[in-house]
Amino acid sequence: MSESTVLARLELDRDGACLYPRLACAQLSDFEAVLAKWPDGRAGVRIAGDPGLARLLGQAGPVGGAVCLVLGPDARPVRAVLFDKNDRADWALGWHQDRTIAVRAVAEADGFGPWSVKQGITHVEPPFALIEAMLTVRIHLDPVDTDNAPLLIAAGSHRLGRVPAAEVDGVAAGLTVHACLAEMGDVWVYRTPVLHASNAARPGRRRRVLQVDYARGDLPAGLEWLGI
């Protein structure tokens, strides 16, 4: 394991997020080609049933390989969303935790619920221990500076467990906030439970990010990860 990888892992464990500079640079044209068939200019497009994207994100590629060094060799991508902030679709997002997973269909399982449907895809809130065992990566297709809606993370919040929604703002206010700046091809990796937020992008700027959740193992009987 290289020194830079060791340092990134230390930052991930301490802060809940770390940067892998240029990790996806060699794949950028491949990502652009695969994503071209999906709608662009929208707030968030949930992607599933795309074997080409699944191959790019698998453990044989640089992104999946980096994730496997943290989670283990059986880690795999289980959800992908393309976020595209631009003049037609721009938004700000307050402090929150990601608490749901995407699955193929509703099934009864202890500790899973409530259920929801987003863009026709079934989502459910699992036991929080499952969220704590996941990683989320953000592959930057455009540069992100302080004016272009960088992800904001509350450092160390991934170690606090499930934070009640009414307490999220207060918890984030008491922690150090990091802005996740990036160049094209950079990849931010964060512990899925970390508290995060983002502002609107500056007019005339575009900020595309492919966000991918990774997990290990199968879900309880009757439930299946949606996958990519």
Mean pLDDT: 93
Global shape: globular
Distance between the termini: 28 Å
Strand content: 25-35%
- Low-confidence spans: none
Mind telling me the C-alpha Rg? 17 Å
Helix percent reads 10-25%
List the secondary-structure elements in sequence, H or E: HEHEHHEEEEEHEEHEEEE
Can you offer a commentary on this structure?
This protein is 21% helix and 28% strand. With 228 residues, it is α+β, with helices and mostly antiparallel strands. Strands 1-11-8-13-3-2 form a six-stranded antiparallel beta sheet. A hairpin with a 2-residue loop joins β6 and β7 (121-124). The protein is globular, with a radius of gyration of 17 Å.
Please summarize what this structure is.
About 20% of the residues lie in helices and about 30% in strands.
What are the salient characteristics of this protein?
about 230 residues; alpha+beta; four-stranded antiparallel sheet; about 30% strand; globular
